[in-house]
Amino acid sequence: MSGVRLSSVTVSYNGAPAVEDVSIDVAAGEWLAVVGPNGAGKSTLLRAVGGTVAAAGVIEIGGVALADMSRRAIARSVAVVPQQPVLPDAVPVLDYVLLGRTPHLGYLASEGPGDVEAAQRSISRLDLEDVASRPLGRLSGGERQRAVLARAVAQDAGVLLLDEPTTALDIGHQQQVMELVDGLRKTGGMTVLSALHDLTLAAQFADRLALLDGGSLVAAGSPTAVLTPAAVSRFSGAHVQILDGPDGPVVIPVRGSAKADGAGDPQA
Amino acid sequence: MKGGLLRLRPTHLMVGLAALAGALLLGVMVGPAGLSPGAVLLEIVDALPVLEVDSGLGDRAAVIVSEIRLPRVVLGALVGGTLSMAGAAYQGVFRNPLADPYLLGVAAGAGLGATLAIVGAGSGSSLVPVAAFGGAVLAVAAAYGLGAAAGGRRTGVTLLLAGVAVAAVLTAAQTFVQQQNADSIREVYSWILGRLGTTGWDEVRMLAPYAVVSGAVILLHARLLDVLALGEEEAGALGVDPARVRATVVLAATLATAAAVSVSGLIGFVGIVVPHTVRLMTGPGYRSIIPLSMVGGAAFLVIADVAARTVASPAEVPIGVVTAFVGGPFFVAVLRSSRRVVAL
Known about the structure:
The complex is a heterodimer of chains A (268) and B (344).
Chain A: E1 4-13, E2 16-26, E3 31-35, H1 42-50, E4 56-61, E5 64-65, H2 71-77, E6 78-81, H3 93-99, H4 113-125, H5 141-154, E7 159-163, H6 171-188, E8 191-195, H7 199-205, E9 208-213, E10 216-221, H8 223-226, H9 229-236, E11 240-245, E12 248-253, H10 257-262
Parallel strand pairs in A: 3-8, 3-9, 6-7, 7-8
Antiparallel strand pairs in A: 1-2, 1-4, 4-5, 9-10, 11-12
Chain B: H1 10-29, H2 37-47, H3 59-94, H4 106-121, H5 127-149, H6 156-180, H7 185-193, H8 202-220, H9 222-228, H10 232-237, H11 242-264, H12 270-282, H13 286-310, H14 319-337
């Protein structure tokens, strides 16, 4: 189990900061959801933790600074589920999941029986046994997302980064994917960082939310503390009402500014 | 599927090797000297160590087999295997089904080098292969340099576009030189069409080291090409440095292609038709595509050379004409079927 620590993390693209001076700790086994409007820097922050963009400041995974780790060592500690994964249509599910073993292999080595076993375990954990030999191009949307998760799980990393894992899915599959991630976290002891723009879903599953705006961390804490109508309307420009649901705050969009102004009271 | 489908399956390799053996035998037995195929076969068996058989061929005929037919067939196999392997490697590195080994300016660079040498020293000059090799390697180096100088994120696409620019400039220069020296246009043209001419085993000796070393490097990188199929960002998140894999594979493929081009000219279509055929028949894994492209490309070019030598016998049709004539229609068929079976 490894936690993640960010101290004064700044990421710039061509001189313009996309993430600025973000500091936050994620405990081992915790689920932190990074929320915020489009362009707030959610994906960039995840990329920095995954080591695929250069960042100033210090990022530590399990107490080791990312800057001191090789690319392969990072890939053994952090598994990434990108927002729009590339799924080569002709590649069968088992082979795709096996590619997740790459960081455990030597530069020019081939997978051994242990790697095939790891891939098969991960396939059965995500309930993909029936389609294990099917090409990715012939999977349903929900199966595709589970295949990507299975590849990330086969990586055997302590930290799982999910960039908008539910965007392309209907409500049933959104719940299924989130439950699966929660199960992986609980049984596999993974630390989860996810970017999510669905605030209600984020509040239901994450332990804590981190609200980003314009690249800066503007609020962090429990879902009820972060999701106030004032915060949501200020940073997303949305008119919302926030209700107290069975699994945390529920964010409901409301039409027209008059109504929304009346809903300025937390947990109305 | 115990170990996954992306790996090389032994049955595929056996079929490929059998086809190659058949093509090599056919290539040695057919020729204008009118030797009996059976006697040629015995002569080859005799040439193997340990075995002693009397083929019944005279000394002159024996020399035809060992110094003319055998080197030509072996050269055809080496060139065909090298170009197909390099084509498959380029397709994997650039994730582009239209990539061929000449993509980054190898053809244009070799063409300019060979043209300059032919104009300056004549088509028989030993400078021609050297100039072609140098031109090919310099062109790809220029494409790499330009791609890096373009700044920003160094992706495969930047490199590919730099290659297009380099090829355009070098082709323009080659056309200019050729147009200024109209008397040697025939030699230049015949070089560009490609041919498998041999003087004993010299060409084979020149190409073999490049083909073997580059082939080994590319085979070892085949699994990493499967990882690159996930795109640069995801390959990076799996601990692979895409730029390093690309540079290594492109370097190996370029050296092998430049060596092949320097001895055989610009034989087209082998590097694109063979890897696609292999891909369609055996699936998307580079651990299978790379070795089978080597074997298949070797067999294909040996058979194309038999056709080039016999169709208009005693004259020879340029082998580049044969491969393009077969390759064109074949490519259309590949494109038609790849609508269903997605290519990369």
